[in-house]
Specification:
Largest sheet: 7 strands, mixed
Helix content: 40-55%
Radius of gyration: 24 Å
Strand content: 5-15%
Order of helices and strands: HHHHEEHHEHHEHEEHHHEHH
Distance between the termini: 78 Å
Oligomer: single chain
Number of domains: 2
Structural class: alpha/beta
CATH topology of the largest domain: 2-enoyl-CoA Hydratase, Chain A, domain 1
Number of strands: 7
Number of helices: 14
Shape: globular
Length: about 325
């Protein structure tokens, strides 16, 4: 059962508490209150359908950060077999904010790779709160090249607010590490499927995000900057994050409309954190579909498709307006 509720989920939490109390009463006193529980459960379902159908962009951002949400390792363990984590970038150290290695997906060898957060203070410190450093991207590059060498598909999972912006990260050339990953991902001749499973923030996300298919979970977001960062720049106050989330068009639906993502992966009612197994099942089905499509293409076709896909970003159709002779005349006021 979910024990952490967001602000907008307060009515759900209150009703769920009443159901739990009735179930405890029935169990401890052997009282039949099944009709009352059934009625409240039906009401809870209707309430959830209503609330989650009207989520604002900021509320979806909050869901994408839910501490019970499944992370990369959760999805890997649920949809793959025989995962073997590989460590180190062979240059500096091992960044625990990025994990990856070979695994079996439907008995097919693949390389899985993604950003990883922690669930409590100790694990978050170990994972650097999901903020990758240069050595993390270089480890990712090593695994990408391994996928290329073995000619097996690459599946990446993105859930990060961004690359780590600390002094050490800059000293070890974080921008260069991300840029090299972008260049090299475009060269891969194997199927690359990217899934935004939570937060897809800034260059930290795009460093693992150049794919033939880019999927996004229903309550994830993908943006050049976090809403708080945008609000701090434009409004000089992070409290305007909800307005920034609205303006940035960062939710799955908007991204799909703009062609930034190829498919939206549905989540269990209330979010992926409510049912990890169901969320993984829905993601696995979409990965299977995407992989089946991409396996029909040759290596050169995969490279070309990936290149053309990203070249189209930011292109919009504009309507040409024909001006009449009168419209084209600009009157200049006389000087007095």
């Amino acid at each position: 059962m979910n024990d952490i509720y967001l602000d907008f989920e307060a009515p759900i939490a209150e009703l769920q508490k009443k159901i739990d109390e009735l179930e405890a009463l029935s169990s401890s006193n052997n009282i039949d209150v099944s009709k009352e529980i059934s009625a409240l459960t039906k009401r809870l379902q209707e309430m959830m359908l209503d609330i989650y159908a009207k989520l604002t962009p900021w509320q979806r951002v909050q869901l994408s950060r839910h501490p019970r949400r499944p992370y990369t390792l959760d999805y890997i363990n649920l949809i793959c077999r025989n995962f073997m984590e590989l460590s180190g970038d062979r240059r500096y150290s091992d960044d625990k904010a990025i994990i990856g290695g070979p695994a079996l997906f439907n008995d097919r060898p693949v390389i899985v790779l993604g950003t990883q957060k922690g669930r409590d203070m100790k694990s978050n410190l170990f994972r650097n709160f999901g903020w990758p450093q240069p050595e993390g991207y270089r480890k990712a590059l090593r695994l990408m090249r391994l996928a290329e060498q073995a000619q097996i598909p690459l599946l990446t999972f993105v859930d990060t607010p961004g690359a780590y912006p600390g002094v050490g990260s800059e000293e070890r050339h974080i921008a260069e590490a991300i840029a090299v990953n972008l260049r090299e991902m475009f060269k891969l001749t194997v199927p690359v499927i990217v899934t935004i499973i939570g937060e897809g923030g800034s260059g930290g996300a795009i460093g693992l995000g150049v794919g033939n298919k880019v999927l996004i979970m229903e309550n994830a977001y993908y943006s050049v900057i976090t809403p708080e960062g945008c609000a701090a720049i434009l409004w000089k106050d992070r409290k305007f994050a909800p307005q920034a989330a609205e303006a940035l068009k960062i939710t799955a639906g908007k991204l799909y409309e703009l062609g930034v993502v190829d498919a939206i992966v549905p989540e269990p009612l209330g979010g992926a954190h409510r049912d990890h197994e169901k969320a993984a099942e829905l993601l696995k089905a979409e990965l299977e579909k995407s992989l089946a499509e991409l396996e029909k293409l040759s290596g050169e076709e995969l490279k070309a498709q990936r290149y053309e896909k990203f070249r189209k970003f930011g292109c919009f159709e504009t309507e040409k307006i024909e001006l009449s002779e009168e419209d084209s005349v600009v009157e200049v006021p006389e000087e007095k």
